[in-house]
Structures are given as C-alpha cells and as structure tokens.
Amino acid sequence: MNARTPRSCKRCGKCCMADFVAYVTDEDIKRWQQEEREDILRIIDHEHAFWAGDHLLSSEGGRYLRGCPLLVWEGDHCACSIYDTRPQVCVDFIPGSSELCPQFENLK
Ligand code: SF4
Ligand code: SF4
User: pLDDT tens digit string along 26-47?
Assistant: First the structure.
C-alpha cells in the first residue's frame, strides 16, 4: 500500500477533532439554512470553535472542546450524527490523507 492508496476508515473519530467548525464554509451554512437545520446552526453559533494547533477551543471562555459536538459514539466506534449533510471539509477528507489519521503512512 502506498500513500495514494485509499484506506478504509476505522471510525476512530480522530479527524473529527480537527476538521469541523473552523472549516465550515458559507455553502455549508446556506445548505443547513435551506434544510432548516436549526440544530446544527445553533451548535455552530454557540461553540465558535477554533483550531489551536492540536485541539479545538471554544472562543466563549476558551473551553476545551473534546472534538466535534456532532460526533457520537456507537459502542467501540464513532459516527457522524449529521452524516448526510456534514460539512464539505468532512466529505472531502480521505482516510489516511493526513497525520491526523492513524491510517496515515508517510512513504516519501
Ligand atoms: S482519523 Fe481516519 S480512521 Fe479515524 S475516523 Fe478519521 S478517517 Fe476514519
Ligand atoms: S461533522 Fe461529522 S464528520 Fe465532520 S467533524 Fe463532525 S462528526 Fe466528524
């Protein structure tokens, strides 16, 4: 397997510690507005999360965020509670494509 070979997602949730609110786009927001997903929009407005190098912080008091608030645990693996309408950055993330993912292999 090389660095370009697709890897399967092990549903560990580590990428969901980084790729959420800080990278939500205007298109994501518009889609959620059209879908009347007030539940998601409320979370976005409330958390104001930003990426602080290796973890998410809430800009409201600097509270440590233990990953995306839309991540849920199902026994020994995680799932996205808004999978069908998750942010584009989450759709685009390829398992193993960054050091965030335990499947990452640097074969330079
Ligand atoms: S870090 Fe990799 S294996 Fe874990 S959930 Fe994300 S894509 Fe899947
Ligand atoms: S929206 Fe879903 S896929 Fe994206 S970071 Fe949150 S839990 Fe993970």
Answer: 899 999 999 999 998 888 777 6
Query: Which ligand places an atom closest to the C-alpha of 32?
Result: 2
Atom of ligand 1 nearest to the CA of 9: 8
Distances, alpha carbon 70 to alpha carbons 6, 9, 15, in Å: 25, 17, 13
This prediction has a pTM of 0.78
Model confidence over 77-102: pLDDT tens digits? 999 999 999 999 899 888 988 888 88
Helix locations, 7-80, DSSP H? 26-34, 38-47
Atom of ligand 1 nearest to the CA of 16: 6
